Amino acid sequence: MPPLLQSRHLATEIPGPGSTQLARRRAMAVPRGVGSTLPVYALRAGGGIVEDVDGNRLIDLGSGIAVTTVGNAAPRVVEAVQQQVAEFTHTCFMVTPYEGYVAVAEALNRITPGEFEKRSVLLNSGAEALENAVKIARSYTGKTAVAAFDHGYHGRTNLTMALTAKSMPYKSGFGPFAPDIYRAPASYPYRDGLIDKELGSDGERAAERAIGVLENQIGAHNLAALVIEPIQGEGGFIVPAPGFLPALLAWCRDNDVVFIADEVQTGFARTGAMFACDREGPTGLAPDLICTAKGIGGGLPLAAVSGRADIMDAPHVSGLGGTFGGNPVACAAALGALAAVEADDLVGRARQMERLIFERLGRLQADDDRIGDVRGRGAMIAVELVQPDTNAPDPALTAALAAACHRAGVIVLTCGTFGNVVRLLPPLTISDALLSEGLDVLAGELAKL
Ligand SMILES: *Cc1c(COP(=O)(O)O)cnc(C)c1O
């Protein structure tokens, strides 16, 4: 095949005939419950482009939901995977272990925030990482209650549905949910600030509100863990007000509550730091446990719980594990992806992209009062679309804008509790030219709506 060109190109309408035919086969083979954002079927991808089966080349501002942070089919990942897949594909770490798993655990222990001794357990998906973090926290504390936050998203298994805030589409009709899960108010600077300016900017006050709910409705002596995304992903790329997370962490430390940071979406260079917690306050924030997945495997399924050795070692021997957890091919991919992040300074690249995206979207916001807020960090930035007079969420405009971008050959995703957020998660290997072109398309399509 000729090399994948790094340019947007529309060979057919979106979707083209090849994708339309695959959609017909899919309708007879795959349940409708599995949704897809775009109607096109991928053939290959890399750099900042996804090419479909009809020869359309789309600018990738989604990274398969924050997964291909190091780029799709990244050369270091491809090479590591090809070598490993030819050596062995699986023995099960619980049967005959292998070095790759240990090396990934060592790497995660090194790069995750916190100077203390750490351990990491490897799993298959973000949801499975959250499930295990809760198991570990309960085992360590001897307590059972777990608190999550408004706007939080943690996965689609039974326990993680319970942790997730939003009913549609994640929970509705799928209950009953795991017991002893509670919800506390989050810090949502834009929407909090519309009601109470100080609450929107003072994270300590927002934390007081949350802690009040925790103490009143659960009681610290019952609470095993607090589960929180340092920047809420599906909930709308919500960056909490400064001071919110440190105040919660301090309260957890005082009350023997395990602080679990869900960095499944924010982790691994995405936010212009190796982890979003690293950019909290002047010195960063060191959670007790960190859940990772999405970006860490360079596109292969891999997840982890990393954290304080004393907590991680609480579960009894053989209490943790799983058949595929830490699969050797996924581990090789992760080591290749981490080598790419470190050798190519992708953390620095995410900061460059942050400046470029904020500059462009800032100009757009100044010209268009339907953009209520522009927020995020690194290569994880979103616009919240509202009705100008009331600031009420505008999910219809959001859906129309995303669909228009897709027809124009730009992959963007939406999110938000109110469905009114367009989020950008470009791979860190995209060129400035493609990134700018993607943002120009977004601006141009918004102007037409
Ligand atoms: C995607 C996501 C999950 C779930 O990960 P899966 O691999 O889909 O199970 C959990 N938490 C956050 C913050 C996520 O973005």
Automatic annotation (TrEMBL):
It comes from the Bacteria. One of its GO terms (molecular function) is pyridoxal phosphate binding. Its EC number is 2.6.1.19, 2.6.1.22. Pathway: Amino-acid degradation; 4-aminobutanoate degradation. Its cofactor is pyridoxal 5'-phosphate. It catalyses: (S)-3-amino-2-methylpropanoate + 2-oxoglutarate = 2-methyl-3-oxopropanoate + L-glutamate; 4-aminobutanoate + 2-oxoglutarate = succinate semialdehyde + L-glutamate. It holds the Pfam family Aminotran_3. Keywords: Amino-acid biosynthesis, Aminotransferase, Arginine biosynthesis, Pyridoxal phosphate, Transferase. Coiled coil: none annotated. It is an enzyme of class 2 (transferase). One of its GO terms (biological process) is gamma-aminobutyric acid metabolic process. InterPro entries: 4NH2But_aminotransferase_bac, Aminotrans_3, Aminotrans_3_PPA_site, Class-III_PLP-dep_AT, PyrdxlP-dep_Trfase, PyrdxlP-dep_Trfase_major, PyrdxlP-dep_Trfase_small. NCBIfam families: GABAtrnsam (TIGR00700), PRK06058.1 (NF004714). PANTHER family: ACETYLORNITHINE AMINOTRANSFERASE, MITOCHONDRIAL, AMINOTRANSFERASE CLASS III. Belongs to the class-III pyridoxal-phosphate-dependent aminotransferase family. This is 4-aminobutyrate aminotransferase. The lineage of its organism: Bacteria, Bacillati, Actinomycetota, Actinomycetes, Mycobacteriales.
